[in-house]
Amino acid sequence: MMNKLNILTFPDPRLRKKASPITVFDNTLKKFAEDMLFTMYESKGIGLAATQVDFHQRLIVIDVSDEQNEPYFLINPSYVVLDETIEHFKEGCLSIPTFFEDIYRPKKIELTYQDLKGKKKVEIFEGIFSVCVQHEIDHLEGKLMVDYLSPLKRDRIRNKLERKKDDKKTN
């Protein structure tokens, strides 16, 4: 049975917490990762970092396939930039619902991570997968998509989201 987890939304201070490395690879981790994937699919996302569901360990789930049948479980992920060329994509974020912004990121990365069994893997990515990985690793570092925007734009988004929260409370 899959559980849908609660996704924290900006400006929740828990989104700023840095994630710790994962050292235990067991069924509890596997179950939690599967719940994260289920939550991501249910929320129509392509990536979710554990930080976003208030679990402060280095775990990310990603699936950029159209059919949502190519999930990646990235544990203790890190990357190096292989191509300094900057690309920009309209990025969205499940923790910043309804907002899509142009974010500029390096084009090509070499990703090192562990799978659910703890096996180390190294892969090269570019395009949407590369963007998604960089976005989700930012979450593990306590960094958000809005940090790439001007303070004015960031404040405007914060105010709109806080108003939405207040509207939900009063309705």
UniProtKB/TrEMBL annotation:
It catalyses: N-terminal N-formyl-L-methionyl-[peptide] + H2O = N-terminal L-methionyl-[peptide] + formate. One of its GO terms (molecular function) is peptide deformylase activity. Fe cation binds at C93, H135, H139. The active site is at E136. It comes from the Bacteria. Binds 1 Fe(2+) ion. Its cofactor is Fe(2+). Its EC number is 3.5.1.88. GO terms for biological process: translation. Keywords: Hydrolase, Iron, Metal-binding, Protein biosynthesis. HAMAP family: Pep_deformylase. Belongs to the polypeptide deformylase family. Removes the formyl group from the N-terminal Met of newly synthesized proteins. Requires at least a dipeptide for an efficient rate of reaction. N-terminal L-methionine is a prerequisite for activity but the enzyme has broad specificity at other positions. This is Peptide deformylase. It comes from SAR86 cluster bacterium. The gene is def.
